[in-house]
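Per your request, structure below.
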């Protein structure tokens, strides 16, 4: 439940910062606007995919550091 809430929070923050783009109607009209939106959507997919991979790696790193590690035992060499 917490992860879903966090994901929604991050998504709303990302979408909220893009609201300034709606104020500029000029370059997004016609076919050029469609090309721009497709390009931006493609870039967003790449950024989101990399963000998910980074968050997954960070989570695994934190879990491994918090996990109980085996206690090494001394070995006597003769």
């Amino acid at each position: 439940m917490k992860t879903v809430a966090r994901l929604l929070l991050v998504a709303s923050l990302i979408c909220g910062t893009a609201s300034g783009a709606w104020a500029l109607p000029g370059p997004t009209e016609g076919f050029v606007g469609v090309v721009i939106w497709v390009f931006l959507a493609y870039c967003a997919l790449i950024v989101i995919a990399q963000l998910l991979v980074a968050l997954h790696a960070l989570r695994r790193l934190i879990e491994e550091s918090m996990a109980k590690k085996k206690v090494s035992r001394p070995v006597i060499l003769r």
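The chain is about 70% helix and 0% strand.

Regards,
D.
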